[in-house]
Amino acid sequence: MPLEVSSFLLPSTWEVLQMPRYTMPCQRNSQAPEGEPDQSHVYDFGKWQNWANHIESCAPWTMPSDDKELAALLAYATEHGYKVRPSGAAHSAGGLVTSQADAEVLVVSLGKYTAPEDWEYKLTPQEGKIAGRVMVNAGWTQLQLMAKIRPLNYFLPSQTAGYFFQLAGIVANTVHGGIYESGFIYEYVTRMRVMLHDGSIKVIDDEKDLRFWRTSFGLLGLIIGLEFELVQRPKLQVYTVPQRKLADWSEVEFWRYINVDAAANVPPSTPGFTEPTGSQEAASGEFFLNFGLDDLLGSSMLCVATRTGENATLPGIPTDAPADVVAQYEKLMQHRVVVKDHGQEH
């Protein structure tokens, strides 16, 4: 879902830049130090928290709207001694952003950010193994990108388990992919547009430099634009492999479900791999395990899998994008969720 948050919930970048330099208290309606203007109303909701409320901090959660505001925010942080930490969907390990005890952090989200010109979104079809490239605002989620490219049968070469992750976060953190013959999503980044600590902007396109920005956790600067390689999948099936109770919890039974039931395209050289080998017709698989710690339920496995191209032949499962694929994406992107215990919508 889009990361944009209603403006009344979070402080604007301008409001943050006008604030005095002192540690904002977390309690609502608390008073500023004597002689300082009271700005606590701005922070009624604008404090960073992670996705599951494991961490609720005092760190201002800001959402600059363009390069100018983002550069101004970095200058403010430098002047007043803040550490700047990027945060996307707030789904990574909380300590990468801040903790409840760290009062010197300013959190920056690209949820409201608009990139200039082609860096907002540009799709370039190509011939050959790489079917195309897409330049995209790094503050977009996978859902926002897929809403643009899926109706045209384009996909990222790899994928994650959640469509709500922010693209910059996927690249800056170690986010795995679920495609058997593909790797980490950051492997398919060919260019990055980044902002350094001083507000200057660079386009990184040399592999010698890109390798340092992948999994950089925001330590080198802010990733604000990305270019990805794309593949085309005109035929795609998504289906659930039936859950099966394992004869016993063993290495053989584990691999039997993955390779035979789920038809995983896993090479025999995979560490820990044991026979038997199945059809290897599935392109990806997301597995759910019940370890069966009690004798009554036993151990079981279930898989959500995909097949593509010539292997997308399972009966009764659509292979083409639905006729209303654009409308379905639009409906999904309009979905609202309520933040637990805050009663506010994101």
TrEMBL record:
PROSITE patterns with a match to the protein in the record: FAD_PCMH
Which PANTHER family does the UniProt record give? D-ARABINONO-1,4-LACTONE OXIDASE (PTHR43762:SF1), L-GULONOLACTONE OXIDASE (PTHR43762)
Top-rank taxon, per record: Eukaryota
Q: Which residues form the FAD-binding PCMH-type domain?
A: 54-233
Protein name per UniProt: FAD-binding PCMH-type domain-containing protein
Please name the Pfam families in this protein's record: FAD_binding_4 (PF01565)
The species is Polarella glacialis
The molecular function terms in GO held by this entry are: FAD binding; oxidoreductase activity, acting on the CH-OH group of donors, oxygen as acceptor
InterPro entries in the cross-refs: FAD-bd_PCMH (IPR016166), FAD-bd_PCMH-like_sf (IPR036318), FAD-bd_PCMH_sub1 (IPR016167), FAD-bd_PCMH_sub2 (IPR016169), FAD_lactone_oxidase-like (IPR010031), Oxid_FAD_bind_N (IPR006094)
